[in-house]
Amino acid sequence: MSVTPAEIDAINIHRASLQAMRRAILAISPLPDMVLVDAFRIPDLLIAQRGIPKGDRKCSAIAAASIVAKVTRDREMLALHVADPRYGFDHHKGYATAEHLAAVSRHGYSTIHRRSFRPQSSLFAGREPSM
Predict the structure, then answer these.
(1) How many domains is the chain partitioned into structurally?
(2) Rounded distance, CA 126 to CA 58, Å?
(3) Which domain holds residue 7?
């Protein structure tokens, strides 16, 4: 499960991440008896849960989920690169590298960019990326 860039812009990245986790859990059938979460508890989830600080280091289930999430994101970034190669998603996978920031500076935000993302970078010299 995921959230859209617009959802992230509306509620912030942390709350959007929790929303995505809640959606993913509620899509499981049958529902789990217990949920283990890396560091945070998921608000408004009426299933027993335990937030484990540094859970990806302490719990194999959380570590495995982290790997699955990263591989899924990387595959999504490769597909986005095929659809619009201007941003180089195949190289930086959407992380705010110098290459990515330079592409955003040149081309503006795409439909998949969060509008609330404001890089602390001299590439923009106090101006908004072009749209």
Answers:
(1) 2
(2) 42
(3) 1-58
